[in-house]
Amino acid sequence: MLLNDIAPLKLLGKSLALCLMSLTAGFACAQDQHVKKESVWVDEARVRYGIPGVVIAIVPRSGPVRFITSGYCDIERARRCSPSNPFAVGSITKSLTGLLAAHLAANGTLDLNRPVHSIDPTISLPDERTESVTLRDLLDQRSGLGSVDWPYFWNPEIPPEVYIARLPAVPTLRAFRSGFGYANANFVIAGKVIESATGSSWESLIRKVLLRPLGMNQSGFDSPGEQTIGYGSPVSGNFTRYSDSYPVALRPAGGLVTSARDFTRLMAMLVHGGEHAGRTILSKQALEIAFAADPANYGGYALGIGFTRFRGQRIYHHTGSMAGFSAAYLLMPGRWATVILTNRTGTMFPEGLAFAMLDRHLGGKGDDALASFGGPIEPAASACVPGKLAPKTVRHPVGVFQNPAWGAFIVSATPGGHRIQSGAFSASLIWEQAETYCFDAAPGWESLRISLTKDATGRVNGLDLSDGMHPTLQRFTRVSD
Fold this sequence. Notes:
Radius of gyration: 24 Å
Low-confidence stretches: 1-20
Number of strands: 20
Strand content: 15-25%
CATH architecture of the largest domain: 3-Layer(aba) Sandwich
CATH topology of the largest domain: Beta-lactamase
CATH class of the largest domain: Alpha Beta
Helix content: 25-40%
């Protein structure tokens, strides 16, 4: 179904006329017109960037939370988005893990600077990191570890213990403590360390410390199901439902599913100095630990929360993307916050829109901020297209291919061609060119490519996998036919 839905501009003009007829309600009408104009601006931006649906929450220090909704949370059924629709927020979950760690550090349960190996001796990492890495290294993304996350989307029930056990085989991003290096692995390990230090599961602690006290009763770690549909990038103007997968192992790094109405409770608590409904949710000390950004730094990342400056203001922020959803928040503690939830994966639009809403809050128009932080409007995604060379001239990969960081791929010949499988994940292999194949599967896997490797005799002895994001291909060795 094509998506082309812009708020009715004629309605805005009609409302303006009615306001002009009632001078006694001038102030209320002015406010009403401001809200309507803002809704129209959001609607036009959403359509321009190719976003199915968006929910915005504005959280001021004084006054009620305000919501703006635009577009559809289920295109096929023409169901519009509402503040109660659940969305996956992906890596925004890292901020909750960081806040939890700050809470535990403030009450003396955790020492963020203690080597994690002394807390959980089962954790083994590449080189000197095993003995030296601390929880702060992990939460600040300074460990230099790399991540391999695809296998856990294909097999979402793989536990975090398996994820961590495979890390020594994952190429590192950079030298230990040599700078910022974003990797989900840092937060998977942090979740395990928090569990070892407390004797409670990461999920139960998040519920106990944050979700339940804040009344975030619509929030959890399961798929939004049929309430909100996540989509991939549009192909020829059409949106296709994204793969619905929520890996257990990745929950501390990106597992939260929440609504705008729920998540604003967390933002409002942070805006109000850790207080909610007359209760202290996070102590002053915990917030000082969580937001202890070096004032001399323009921007950076600490305890699962990014920080930067915008129009002279110190801003805390994070983005996230998961299974057909993308989200962002911006926070000025003690003053203001905004939350942006969308049901399209891997787009910078939520971050751009968040900065645009802040710009509008500060008196700007928002257009330049949206263009700057939202990036260029992305072209339509390319489907997996077969090559033109006759299949008989191409060597086909068949067998079991193993990589210690990824696990195993099984490639088999079928009457309809070739299929690749990893646990529950299965897709057709489509030959593109030379000896390179793409995956004909649901949205989310279109960036994957495999290229065959051969020995001196020309026999296929392995394959290289590229996910379109990491420059280093992953080498799989053929272990059996």
